Amino acid sequence: MAYLTLNRAKLKENFDYLKQTFTANEVSWGVVSKLLCGDRLFLQELINLGVDEVHDSRISNLAMVKSLNPEIQTVYIKPVSKRNVGKMVQFADVSLNSELETIRWISQEAVEQSKNHKIIIMVETGDLREGVMGDQLVEFYSQIFQLPNIDVIGLGTNLNCLNGVMPSSDKLIQLSLYKQIIELKFNKEIPWVSAGTSVTIPLMLTQQLPKGINHFRVGETLYFGLDLFEEKVIEGMNDDVFELHAEIIEMQEKPLLPVGNLAANPQGETAEIDQSLYGKSSFRAIIDIGLLDVDPKYLIPVDGEYEILGGSSDMLIINLGENPNNYKVGDTLNFHMKYMGALSLLSSNYIEKKVID
């Protein structure tokens, strides 16, 4: 069976780097755990780092966090559906919101559960996902402040999540100005201006983060060490916290081109024929993981001598060329992965998860 490993030491190095960076910039932050898909083993590793605030988009994952450490502040980071409001209030201390009617439901549920629920109001800054339009913000807040058992602790935004709009100093200054307007208008303190996600970190590293921005929600950079502006690893961080290990279950020297009449495969794809490859062959390995588990485009071979040719639901086909490393049946091929690849693998019940030092 293919398995996925989390390197404890490399995760800690990434966490310590971010912790030191945020502390030096006087910015608070929470760790986004949704990549871990509620896996108890990996969540425990996260908690062992000393995390005191966990963000997730699945209520069941936040419930798992609370079962491991009830003292951690949990944050629900997407608009909640009406039928899940009760569970959300039960397991999330904070939620991100942009719908007045939804916040009314949260208020009612918080009263019934005899607890105060904290909210961050999301503001639209151009990426056109969730968020209140700026010209509606004052009126929106005026109604929220009247609701019982609701504590407004911040305003925030999401960028680069839908249309790829990147954060900028101008957009973040605009967010800080909204905070000042709300505070002056209603004589209320808004503690957090939550600037966004990992994609905003490069602005902080280059001293372009406006001073009013004081809270981040970080996932991808913690797990992959990436500067998402330049798509490169930040110096001092690791991009290989996770690694996939898949066993070779067949090894044969085969023609490079298929033989016979071609039709679409189960994925709706038809092979393209490069006639210059007729009569040529290579060593091809089949590994014990397939499209059901991960899209091959998100996998990065650790050994650059092989490439993924394609796959079916339960198997991937690897071109080993002349097989310079002398791989054989039973050997393991290793892959690093992009964020979406790790997300698929972590959500698969067919992939074993292990922690290594």
From TrEMBL:
Coiled coil region boundaries:
none
Alanine racemase N-terminal domain mapped to chain residues: 7-225
**What's in the GO CC field?**
cytosol
Q: Which domain of life is it from?
A: Bacteria
Which Pfam family, an example, fits this chain? Ala_racemase_N
The molecular function GO annotations come to:
alanine racemase activity; pyridoxal phosphate binding
Instruction: Give cofactor(s), names only.
Output: pyridoxal 5'-phosphate
Keywords per UniProt: Isomerase, Pyridoxal phosphate
Q: PANTHER family given for it? A: ALANINE RACEMASE, LYSINE RACEMASE
Under what name is this protein listed? Putative amino acid racemase
UniProt source species: Algoriphagus antarcticus
